[in-house]
Design goal:
Elements lengths: L23 H15 L5 H24 L2 H5 L5 H25 L6 H12 L5 H9 L4 H29 L12 H18 L1 H10 L1 H25 L8 H28 L4 H11 L4 H11 L2 H38 L6
Helix pairs in contact: 1-10, 2-8, 2-9, 2-10, 4-5, 4-7, 4-11, 4-12, 5-7, 5-14, 6-7, 6-12, 6-14, 7-8, 7-12, 8-13, 10-13, 10-14, 11-12, 11-14, 13-14
Length: 348
């Protein structure tokens, strides 16, 4: 007699990797640049768009001030090692890398794009994407809120002076388009609305918190308007005839190199000082970010319309790189945390 043994085969469903999500804002930036290339605004329309852009940016910073709670400002403010690391990376390491590249490979880019690279390196960290990425990666959210906010506010004052100093150090990028007197315009258009909005938070805070999605559309819409106006002026002044595909490819390579160098430094630094996993994630994801929201209006205040477009190119390229690379890193940290938790250990 033959005995049959039943074999139970256990199986697990194959986990299908999620499709990469296309960021709507990044796609909108590309479409706006294309729109400015083929349908640039000029004449009276350009003046109207310029005035509307200034008003929109002022409202953007006003609403940011209204949304920012004092608890968020003070939360984690004593974590001086995290804040010091991000601030040093944003306002010291980035500029040093930018200067080193202008000296090492000056022929890689035309002077106007090197000027844009230095402007990128002088910008503060961004708030929204930093906090969102740290949250996805299961990092120190309170610390990210505090350090990214402090960097963004300080950047309104530090960035114009830091960029002016960088441009003076690198002789090949000296240009008469740099107007440090625009610093007062920055205070009037950015910092003053922010302060007024924060002072009015007791009256507007709840409304702002309830309408975050609507205000996010307003924020991004104001940036898109300024970018369209700036690139329209640049297109009318022949920006694309001055930048062949090879030059744009070199720009992508230079900006990507900056991101990789900063990322490598932050990974080694956070490990060397003994940061725990949440602080390490906050330091890396906040320290590698640069603020497009702050950069566009600062550039608009410091430079003439024809120059703003080319100067924004390095910043926009970096925005795309930091967005996709940051999202990949955040998801990787989240998967590592889930794997650690599954094994019964803490991912903190």
């Amino acid at each position: 007699m033959t005995t049959q043994h039943s074999v139970t085969v256990s199986w697990r469903p194959v986990r299908v990797l999620p499709r990469p999500r296309i960021d709507g804002f990044a796609l909108s930036l590309v479409l706006v640049v294309l729109g400015a290339t083929f349908l640039p605004c000029q004449g009276e329309a350009a003046r109207v768009f310029h005035i509307l852009g200034i008003a929109a940016i002022g409202s953007l910073f006003f609403l940011q001030g209204a949304r920012l709670s004092r608890e968020a400002v003070w939360a984690g403010i004593t974590h001086w090692r995290l804040h010091g690391m991000v601030a040093s990376t944003t306002f010291v390491i980035f500029p040093l890398i930018g200067l080193a590249l202008t000296v090492a490979i000056p022929a890689a880019l035309p002077p106007i794009l090197w000027l844009g690279v230095l402007f990128l390196c002088a910008l503060p960290s961004t708030v929204q994407s930093s906090i969102a990425l740290v949250s996805i990666g299961r990092g120190n959210i309170a610390g990210a809120v505090c350090t990214a906010t402090a960097s963004n506010i300080a950047g309104m004052v530090i960035t114009p002076f830091l960029f002016s100093a960088l441009a003076d150090v690198e002789s090949s990028t000296k240009s008469s388009v740099i107007d440090l007197s625009g610093f007062w315009q920055i205070l009037a258009e950015l910092l003053a609305p922010f302060v007024v909005g924060h002072l009015l938070r007791p009256y507007l805070g709840r409304w702002a918190d309830r309408n975050r999605s609507l205000l996010a559309i307003t924020d991004r819409g104001s940036i898109l308007m300024v970018v369209y106006t700036a690139f329209s002026a640049a297109v009318l002044n022949g920006v694309w005839t001055l930048m062949p595909p090879l030059t744009l490819g070199s720009l992508f390579a230079v900006v990507a190199a900056i991101f990789v160098l900063v990322l490598t430094i932050l990974v080694a630094w956070s490990r060397g000082v003994g940061f725990g996993r949440p602080d390490k994630i906050a330091a890396i994801l906040c320290g590698t970010q640069k603020s497009l929201v702050s950069g566009v209006p600062i550039a608009n205040a410091m430079f003439s319309g024809a120059v703003v477009g080319p100067l924004l190119l390095p910043m926009m390229v970096y925005y795309l790189i930091q967005l996709f690379a940051g999202a990949w890193l955040a998801r990787r940290y989240a998967r590592d945390c889930e794997s650690t938790s599954t094994n019964g250990a803490s991912c903190s």
